[in-house]
Write a structure and sequence with these properties.
single chain, alpha+beta, Pnp Oxidase, Chain A, seven-stranded antiparallel sheet, 7 strands
């Protein structure tokens, strides 16, 4: 979906590699959008997020797989916002947070007083988002 051979696709792929937090928006049972800041890993095809097993976003995704992933503005005027819409699913085959994910957040994990193992135990449910549309502002 994201074509890194185009200027726009390369820019989005670079931001997905470098950004630390994105906003994952799911829909509550009454249709209310539920945005949550999340750590993530872009594997070139999907956005991979790890969640605590009791998080409401898991129930929301089970009911409605339509989600958005939003990257915040990257310039001083609030521009360069990227919005990715897609379908989310719980990936029971995904490994626990692997070295790529842990390496991305190693410093923050340590600052929070956690280890890679404690993070993986707390955030044990993998969510994958397959993009189907991307737009920017």
């Amino acid at each position: 979906m994201i074509d890194p051979s185009t200027e726009f696709g390369a820019h989005v792929a670079k931001r997905l590699q470098e950004e630390r937090v994105v906003w994952l928006t799911t829909l509550a049972s009454d249709g209310t959008p539920q945005p949550n800041p999340v750590w993530f890993y872009w594997d070139g095809e999907t956005v991979l997020v790890y969640s605590q097993p009791t998080a409401s976003k898991l129930r929301n995704i089970s009911r409605c797989s339509k989600v958005s992933v939003n990257l915040e503005g990257a310039d001083e005027l609030g521009g360069d916002i990227v919005v990715i819409t897609g379908d989310a699913f719980i990936d029971e085959t995904a490994p626990k947070p692997d070295s790529r994910f842990i390496d991305k957040y190693r410093e923050v994990i340590a600052k929070l007083g956690q280890t890679a193992e404690s993070l993986a135990a707390s955030y044990s449910v993998a969510i994958r988002v397959r993009p189907n549309k991307i737009r920017d502002f």
